[in-house]
Amino acid sequence: MGSSRAPPVFGKPKVSEHTLLGVVWSGLIITLCFFTFRIYVRVKSFRKLYVDDALILLAWLMILATAIIWQKLSGAMYRSLRVISGEVYPPPPNFVNDEQNFLRGSAAVLILFYSSLWAVKLSFLIFFRRLVRGVMIQKQLWWCVLAITVGSYLVCIGVTEYNCLLPSYAQIASHCAGLDAIRFQRTTLHLTCALDVITDGLIISIPISLLWKVEITVKQKVALAGIFSLAVITMTFAIVRVTVISILTQQPDVSWLYMWSFVEQTVAIIVVCLASFRALFTRESRHSAIPHGGTNLRKLFLPAAIRNNGQITTSISASGETETKSLATSSDESNMSFIPPDKVHVRHEINQFISPSDIEHGNTEVVEDHPRSRS
């Protein structure tokens, strides 16, 4: 008489326990290196840290907590998966306890996963907020993106199936093993992935839309656009994480899914560290207060004789009056004529100059250009 075996819910895990733990701890170490270098660059350049740095630290601590959870619960998860896949039968005596510990640990992992990703998103937003000061359209866009980002985080946390993770194993087995429950899991998986990708795209749109208005070289614009677009990598990993699920009548392969989830967390921290390195924003001196230079201003206000043969010097008297003197450089000084004061018109220009160093410091205030001399 052959022994009866339970039909497998899904196949053998695609990722071994050693592979999962290797990816987890390797990713943790790599992100620690990037975060440490980020802090070093910030402190060396600015002598202080910002709120976005604190958010990245929070995201890294969440990854650390996730790694600790997997170190403690990976054994229980793989023992449960071997039973559910039919590889081990009958279930060992500690199966129910292992399964319950794994499911409750999964609830914590999911909360940490979404929280760490959205901490990275908020870090990006706070970093970009320093760029949009004084630019009304981008400032309004920033607030809209912030509202959507916060709302999407609440949705991701809210749609998590806590009723299939936290109750007793008996309740979970009776309510969460049916086809409807599996379809709901797949639906929420696609929904959270869509929110993840959409919010990343919206966040990228803020600096990209502002970048082409900044007074820097085309080469720098292209380089910075590439840096800001690194978030596309995170979006790609979010899509890959979801596309690895199995057919409709089966549950997702949790080993494969959780490994890619951790990879996405790792990539998100690496990307946000790369995007804000101070070395990417080369220092340049601020533009001169007179945008067209001294020569062009002389052409605006002086007659041809002086433009060709003389020069103007300006001094400020003790009373604050501006005194203008002519220094002749031609032997024919008597032929030089001056414009009467009532015929002089001073042009007042306001130009906005934003250098790369201003971007990093968040100084995007309008600089007023005043003429240096009056006749």
TrEMBL record:
Pfam families: Fung_rhodopsin (PF20684). Residues 313-338 are annotated as: Disordered. InterPro entries: Rhodopsin_dom_fungi, SAT4-like. Residues 313-337 have a biased composition (Polar residues). GO terms for cellular component: membrane. Keywords: Membrane, Transmembrane, Transmembrane helix. The keyword Signal does not apply. This is Rhodopsin domain-containing protein. It comes from Lasallia pustulata.
